[in-house]
Write the structure tokens for this entry.
Amino acid sequence: MVNVDALNTLARRLSPGAMITDPDLLQSYRQDWSFDPAAGTPIAVVRASTTADVQETLRFANSNNVPVIPRGAGTSVVGGSTAVDGAITLSLERMKSIRVDVSSRTAIVEPGAITNDVKAVAAREGLYYPPDPSSYEICSIGGNAATNAGGPCCIKYGVTSDYILGMTVVLPDGSVAELGGKRIKDTPGLALTKLFVGSEGTLGVITELTLRLIPQPPTPHTLVAFFPLMADAVAAARDITSSIRPS
Ligand SMILES: Cc1cc2nc3c(=O)[nH]c(=O)nc-3n(C[C@H](O)[C@H](O)[C@H](O)COP(=O)(O)OP(=O)(O)OC[C@H]3O[C@@H](n4cnc5c(N)ncnc54)[C@H](O)[C@@H]3O)c2cc1C
């Protein structure tokens, strides 16, 4: 267990107000949406504002042998961001910037941006960010990348990994790796960007993402049809999907 002096040293290296150690405030970072009654209590929560904050935290944790739980919006239903006793919870909730580059149809986003906000900023430019986990109004884009989130439209559009072109990650020793980039054909070497998508914070902490956007699709229409026999319904579904792919 690290002592208070060591934590204070870390706090001084971080952006002002980044570290929380108040026991009452720590409570709100114990559980995620799995609501595990056995959730631990972190020794501290670091609310990073910059990649440098994340680097300082991971360097400190690495040299003091302290586990780190990265946390986006805490909507994991499987305990992914549940706190562990004696660990530091590293929250990305303050890193929320979203920039859209219309000419390359990409967005550069920080991990704490809420997915719905990413969609809204893209839509203002006539562009579309398709991945739609049902939690899109409350989850973060960094959490989506870390879990490779997908939603009801994934049959038509794919899942989060299909829209991540690149990322900045901080590795456990505090070093920074830049993976991928804006180009779709950015493929030399190992597919490290794909490796990090879905790795749930076990390989490093994502501090920036480059997302692929597509043109806004036309307004969707919903069709309801009734069939006397199941076989007729299956045949109709096969006919329709042989020429178009509904979402
Ligand atoms: C009502 C509801 C509906 C849902 N529907 C869906 C759905 O349709 N599809 C689906 O896939 N999921 C769904 N989920 C689960 C959840 O919303 C997703 O897994 C989402 O991607 C998590 O995002 P988050 O920001 O809340 O991440 P968190 O819960 O905070 O973290 C999730 C995991 O990612 C890691 N992590 C978070 N941020 C980073 C980062 N920056 N760098 C590295 N690791 C990080 C955490 O350590 C943890 O392991 C749903 C959840 C709820 C509550």
Remarks:
- Residues 230 and 236 are 10 Å apart (CA to CA).
- The chain has two domains: 4-91, 98-215.
- The mean pLDDT is 95.
